[in-house]
Amino acid sequence: MVSEAFLIKKALNNNVVIAEHPAYEEVVLIGKGIGFKKKAGDRIDPQPVEKLFILVDKKEQEQYKQLISQVDERLVELMNDVIHHIAERFATPLNEHIHVALTDHIGFAIKRLEQGLEFKNPFLIETQALYEKEYQVAEEIVDMIRDRLGVQLPESEIGFIAMHIHSAITRRGLAEIKQHSQLILKLIQIVESSLHIKIDRKSISYLRLITHLRYAIERTVRGEEVSEPKGFADLLKSQYPVCYNLAWKLAKVMERTLESPVSKAEISYLTLHLQRLIN
C-alpha cells in the first residue's frame, strides 16, 4: 500500500500525470480525474484516490507517454475503468504492460472499424474455450466500449482482448500466447489432414483436445514430466496404432516449435483424445 504523497511534475491530461515518489522516483500515475486542474508541484495523496494505477517500469512509462498523445482522452479515461474492472474480476495484480498493450490495441481496433476494416480472428472459438473467464470479461469490456464511446467492436475483437487479459494476469508475453495458439491450430490441421476428417469446432471432443494440447504445451515449456501406468503406452500402441503414430508426429512438431522435449506420457494421453475424436 502506497502511503506517501506523490509530487506532480507534469499533468499530461485529466487522467494521467508524471509524478515523483520517495520510493519509486519518477512514475506515471493513471487515475480518473487525477490530472484535472493540477500543476507542477501539487501533491496527490494516494489514500482517497480510487482506481489509481502506477507505472514504475521506465520502458512502460515512455511507451505509455507516447501512446496517450495519440489517442482520444475519452479512451484513456475508459481504459482506466476497463483495467480496474479486469483487476477486480480476477482479484489479482496485472502486468503493467496491459496499460500500453490493451489501450493501443483497442485504439487501433476503433480506427480500423472507422475505416471499414476488420481483422479476422482464426482462433476465436478456441480462445473462448481455452480462456473462458478471460473471454467473458472481454465481452463485458466490449459492452463498456459500446456504452461509453458508442462504438460496437466486432466479435473477433473479443478474442483478441481476451488474450491481452490472459497475458496480463499470467504475466506471460502476448507473443508467447500467440505462438502457442498458432501451434495448436497447426496441430489441428495436421490431425485433419492425417485422419482425412473435418473436425466440428463446437464438439466436446474438439474442445477437450485443444484444452489438452494447451496444457501439454505449457507443461512442455516448463519441462514437466507426466506419469502414466506401466505398459499403458504399449497397450495404446497395439489397440490404436493410427492415433498413436499421429500423436508421435504431433509431439515432434511440438518439440521443434517449442525447442523442448515432450514427455512420452503426453503421447499416450494425446492418443486417447485422438481416438475419442474419431469415435
From TrEMBL:
NCBIfam families per the UniProt record, alphabetical: antiterm_GlcT (NF047357)
SUPFAM superfamilies attached to this UniProt entry: PTS-regulatory domain, PRD, SacY-like RNA-binding domain
Record flagged with keyword Repeat: yes
One Pfam family linked to the record: CAT_RBD
PROSITE patterns membership: PRD_1, PRD_2
Protein name per the record: Transcriptional antiterminator/beta-glucoside operon transcriptional antiterminator
Signal peptide limits: none
Keywords, alphabetical: Repeat
Domain PRD: 70-175, 176-279
An individual GO BP term: positive regulation of DNA-templated transcription
Family listed: Belongs to the transcriptional antiterminator BglG family. GlcT subfamily.
An annotated Gene Ontology molecular function: RNA binding
